[in-house]
TrEMBL record:
Membrane topology recorded in Swiss-Prot or TrEMBL: Multi-pass membrane protein
Organism per entry: Handroanthus impetiginosus
GO BP of this protein: protein retention in ER lumen; protein transport; vesicle-mediated transport
Family according to the record: Belongs to the ERD2 family.
Main location: endoplasmic reticulum
Single GO MF annotation: ER retention sequence binding
Name of the protein: ER lumen protein retaining receptor
GO cellular component: endoplasmic reticulum membrane
Record's keyword terms, sorted: Endoplasmic reticulum, ER-Golgi transport, Membrane, Protein transport, Receptor, Signal, Transmembrane, Transmembrane helix, Transport
Length: 215
């Protein structure tokens, strides 16, 4: 464990807490893409197949449980909660997210570290996580009505991945034979997808104006 990974994990956890805070306190999911949340639920479900068969540490297990439980609970709230689901931007959240799943699965079958079910699913989860934010970004561009909690949620998600890239760089120079090209490339792609959002986020912060993404 190094400072960059710990900061990345805490930032990721903070993004989840911000989203849950919005849902629980405001009883609203306006500006939140159900499609992205469903993709994240699939990401964690396929990545943590070893939850009950491989114990690394209490910290590792706890984080797996938190991300699995929170992702599925968020999907449930948006789909089923009698109050929260009324605020869902269904007419704007129309990106066909299932078009992202099949290419990621095919890529995982072709490019993986070991051709076993668990390793293919691990690679699939990385590829899918890299593009899972796309429906959310498209939704924000369409609605152009971004509240403070939603913008903080997306910013923290992007910051988490950027910190993980620093973690990989640190480990590459401090740990012998630490090479994980699949993680590195998918993480870089994911971070680049946030570049446009980061630019307008910092512009709004600098000018003290409401965040708006161009259509």
């Amino acid at each position: 464990m190094n400072i960059f990974r710990l900061a990345g994990d805490m930032t990721h956890l903070a993004s989840v807490l911000v989203l849950l805070l919005k849902i629980h306190t405001i009883k609203s999911c306006a500006g939140i893409s159900l499609k992205t949340q469903e993709l994240y639920a699939l990401v964690f479900a396929t990545r943590y197949l070893d939850l009950f068969t491989r114990h690394i540490s209490l910290y590792n297990t706890l984080m797996k449980v938190i991300f699995l439980g929170s992702s599925f609970s968020i999907v449930w709230y948006i789909r089923r909660h009698k109050i929260v689901r009324r605020s869902y931007d269904k007419d704007y959240d129309t990106f066909r997210h299932y078009f992202l799943i099949i290419p990621c699965l095919l890529l995982a079958l072709l490019i993986n570290e070991k051709f076993t079910f668990r390793e293919v699913m691990w690679a699939f989860s990385l590829y899918l996580e890299a593009v899972a934010i796309i429906p959310q970004l498209v939704l924000l561009q369409r609605t152009r009505n971004i509240d403070n909690l939603t913008e903080q949620y997306v910013f923290l998600l992007g910051a988490y991945r950027a910190l993980y890239i620093l973690n990989w760089i640190y480990r590459y120079f401090t740990q012998p034979h630490y090479v994980h090209w699949i993680s590195w490339i998918s993480g870089l792609v994911q971070t680049l997808l946030y570049a446009d959002f980061f630019y307008y986020y910092f512009q709004s912060w600098k000018n003290n104006v409401k965040l708006e993404l161009p259509a």
